[in-house]
Amino acid sequence: MSEVLVLIDHVEGAVRKPTYELLTIAKRLGEPSAVFIGPADQAAEATVKVKKYGAEKVYVVDDAPLKGYLVAPKAEALQQLAEKSSPAVILIPSTAEGKEIAGRLAIKLESGLITDAVDVQEGPVTTQSVFAGNYTVTAKVTKGTPIITVKPNSAAPEESEGAGTVEEFSPTISDAAKTAQIVASQPRKATGRPELTEAAIVVSGGRGTGGDFEPIEGLADALGAAVGASRAAVDSGWMPHSFQVGQTGKTVSPQLYVANGISGAIQHRAGMQTSKTIVAVNKDEEAPIFELVDFGVVGDLHKVLPAATEEINKRKG
Amino acid sequence: MNIVVCVKYVPDATADRQFESDNTVDRVGVDGLLSELDEYAVEQSLQIKEKAEGDDVTVTALCVGPEKAVDAVRKALQMGADKAVHVTDEAIAGSDYVATSLVLAKAVEKIGAEEKVDLVVCGMASTDASGSVVPAMLAERLGLPQVTLASVIETQGDQVRIKRDGDTATEVIGGTMPLVLSVTDQSGEARYPSFKGIMAAKKKPMETWSLSDLGVEAEQVGLSVAWTEVEETTARPPRTAGEIVTDEDGSGATALTEFLASKKFI
Ligand SMILES: Cc1cc2nc3c(=O)[nH]c(=O)nc-3n(C[C@H](O)[C@H](O)[C@H](O)COP(=O)(O)OP(=O)(O)OC[C@H]3O[C@@H](n4cnc5c(N)ncnc54)[C@H](O)[C@@H]3O)c2cc1C
Ligand SMILES: Nc1ncnc2c1ncn2[C@@H]1O[C@H](COP(=O)(O)O)[C@@H](O)[C@H]1O
């Protein structure tokens, strides 16, 4: 069986959940080989994790010579690894960085690229959600090694012990790849809540909050949810951009999405329309968000949310 | 300084966007416009020009798209770009990222043959494809560094510094021109064309190039040679109408709690 390369998404060695989803998908397509690009001393921690989700091999690329140089060297590393291992498919997380690596890699390998897949089945045949979630598209790559970037929540991670054989790999990085550089970096503060794109429940607020996100955060915490925001709330400076849901923010596809004081503009829908269950609280019964909902409350969020939060907390005892 | 800003003509997001029978995006039947996200790219290009004061800066808007895309090109000129290049050719229809980036790269090279291009500025994503990959592919093809997804842009001489709100960190990224830059919708409101700008645009140079002007063979682009193939497009079934209640004296909160409990979210 051919190898399927999976680029590990990690922060300082801590593997992010979408990696396990990619490994689960990789098992359908061949033999999962995880690729770790990062500091050598963090590789062991990551290896233990990916092995649990079926990685037969773990290629470790020590990033000391390429650290801080963004995506170009990573694309070179993957190219050389692909030339060496002739994988059947290359799976990359659909993050901003992942997509850029994939873009460069596709040109280098003269291979077709499919971005933002929400499902990948044997073939590989991908499923994408396009036009603000109004259409579903299935597609496949017809040239070279299929390179597919996969969105979070595209598969339920399945544990299955792999061999996890570590193989060190030292790519040759060109000087040209070492031009753009990270000058400074400030890690995002942890919120203590689930990661927006990975959360099972998301509670969002828009302009209708009037800038008061307490009712949103209260309900989110009662439900163990992540907090999201509309662009209007972000543009008003009420929430940082990293909380924005929509076309130019994050795409989320949770089990439950609760939109509060959000009108439901097409660009917002683009980021949440594929959520399983949608609930809205809005004081305007004509708000377009109500066209999407499974359940809606016409009312003032400043009254409805705190009362609901209290009832939920009571029920939980 | 020579700036090329890449602008795409896209179907209006608020209209009913569709697919053609061959599964390509309907770019003719649905009203199109300059991708809103590329307006930010034009805006930042113009701001770099305005800040450079004494230096001579040329901003060229570059668009690869159908004949109607001339509307998008014109809008960029009205906003303040100095000149424009519109690459259009029957053979381009149905091109994927790979082919689009090839045509863009060849056009940038041709523009650069007259005067070296220092900056290629892109939007963060096209509003129809949303791939956010063309800038990276363009950088790869042109052999340039990429400094992408900028919310704040500063240039000084040939140095570029940007701020980027990344997934896990806020970063400052630096590079030396020539390079490919992409900007987000956080980079600041894009200007509306002024009356003066609209009038001035009529006299600005606009060139229309075909594939043969770029030395690209028809066999290198278009649907039939795309490296990816769409198998099927399906309209998402409309969501079934949900239950809507009106809050009266707290009834909304109770009904909401009941609903969440019935779905086992509590
Ligand atoms: C290129 C482009 C990209 C964009 N990308 C995004 C994106 O990624 N994400 C995004 O969200 N938007 C995006 N937008 C903006 C989008 O078009 C809308 O402007 C935005 O989503 C509106 O946010 P909102 O619903 O919070 O505000 P509004 O549309 O102003 O709606 C506020 C709602 O709150 C309700 N309300 C007011 N007070 C209360 C109350 N007390 N209780 C209950 N309800 C109340 C009102 O009835 C109204 O429905 C983008 C736009 C463009 C052009
Ligand atoms: N056909 C095109 N013509 C001009 N610029 C384009 C075209 N396609 C993509 N671009 C540029 O590349 C950016 C990202 O596009 P995409 O990768 O399709 O999301 C856009 O914001 C444009 O700046």
UniProtKB/TrEMBL annotation, chain A:
CDD domains: ETF_alpha (cd01715)
Family affiliation: Belongs to the ETF alpha-subunit/FixB family.
Annotated Electron transfer flavoprotein alpha/beta-subunit N-terminal domain residues: 4-186
Cofactor section: FAD
Pfam families assigned to the protein according to its UniProt record, in alphabetical order: ETF, ETF_alpha
Keywords, sorted A to Z: Electron transport, FAD, Flavoprotein, Transport
Complex and partners: Heterodimer of an alpha and a beta subunit.
Recorded superkingdom: Bacteria
InterPro entries assigned: DHS-like_NAD/FAD-binding_dom (IPR029035), ETF_a/b_N (IPR014730), ETF_a/FixB (IPR001308), ETF_alpha_N (IPR033947), ETF_asu_C (IPR014731), ETF_asu_C_CS (IPR018206), Rossmann-like_a/b/a_fold (IPR014729)
The protein, known as: Electron transfer flavoprotein subunit alpha/FixB family protein
Keyword NADP included in the entry's annotation: no
Keyword Protein transport: no
Entry function: The electron transfer flavoprotein serves as a specific electron acceptor for other dehydrogenases. It transfers the electrons to the main respiratory chain via ETF-ubiquinone oxidoreductase (ETF dehydrogenase).
From TrEMBL, chain B:
Keyword Electron transport set for record: yes
Pfam family for this entry, one: ETF
UniProt function note: The electron transfer flavoprotein serves as a specific electron acceptor for other dehydrogenases. It transfers the electrons to the main respiratory chain via ETF-ubiquinone oxidoreductase (ETF dehydrogenase).
Family note: Belongs to the ETF beta-subunit/FixA family.
Assembly notes: Heterodimer of an alpha and a beta subunit.
PANTHER family: ELECTRON TRANSFER FLAVOPROTEIN BETA-SUBUNIT, ELECTRON TRANSFER FLAVOPROTEIN SUBUNIT BETA
Name the UniProt record assigns to this protein: Electron transfer flavoprotein subunit beta
